[in-house]
Amino acid sequence: MNKIDLVKQLVSEINRLHFAFSNDYFETGKVEKVNLSRTIKSVPISHIYHYRLTLHESINDYLMIADIDLRYFYRVKTRESIDDKIVRFSERDDQYPVNNWLNDIFGARITLKRDDIASVMDMLDDWQDVLNLKNWYLREKEGYRGLHIYFKNKNNFYFPWELQIWDEQDVQRNIQNHEKFKRNFVSLSTLERDAS
Questions:
Q1: Is 190 part of any domain?
Q2: Number of folded domains in the chain?
């Protein structure tokens, strides 16, 4: 299988896992469904926290049986990072739907050569309907560069998931950027309070 086919396989599997987990979580009748196309004022914070905790506790059960032949990394967003996003987006004058900004509670990442990323970008329009992609864009901001792809299976009750594709040459700069801008919710006072 060539690199682009491997990426398509990964995108397809993340989408399948997103649907399986979301279906298992939201379609059992055990959890209230909340329309995430509304602003944060209409989405209970406890709904977000419960989803994040359940995902964190069970994601490996889903990933262990995934058909993925490409090396990838993943994380489940921390509660502190979610709180940081909630505060930032709650304070904005222009309010956005929750599923537009809390779209990465689960995030996976791969690195590719620049030419392979260009080839993937050329294929995304063709993959959108076939693989149920929400949207994608090339983010270039404050020294960070990465292709972001989002999954929500056309359902406003499911939290979107994210796949980031980084150019192999951008890895060090992107990591430094994340350390500078994405981890600012961890302060020394928080660490000291948690240690006591």
A1: no
A2: 1
In a domain, 104, yes or no: yes
Strand segments (E) across 11-82? 73-76
> Looking at residue 125, which CATH number applies to its domain?
3.30.460
Q: Mind listing the pLDDT tens digit for each residue in 11-47?
A: 999 999 999 999 999 999 999 999 999 999 999 999 9
Give the Cα separation of 153 and 11 in Å (integer): 12
| List of residues 6+ apart from 99 with CB closer than 8 A | 36, 37, 152, 156, 159, 160
pTM: 0.88
User: Does 140 map to a domain?
Assistant: yes
Given a cut of 90, whether residue 189 has pLDDT beyond it is no
Domain of 45? 3-184
Q: 125-134 pLDDT, tens per residue?
A: 999 988 889 9
Kindly report, residue by residue over 152-187, the tens digit of the pLDDT: 999 999 999 999 999 999 999 988 887 776 655 555
Sign of the four-CA dihedral 170, 173, 179, 181: negative
Instruction: Give domain status of residue 191, yes or no.
Output: no
Strands 73-76 and 133-141, how do they pair?
Answer: unpaired
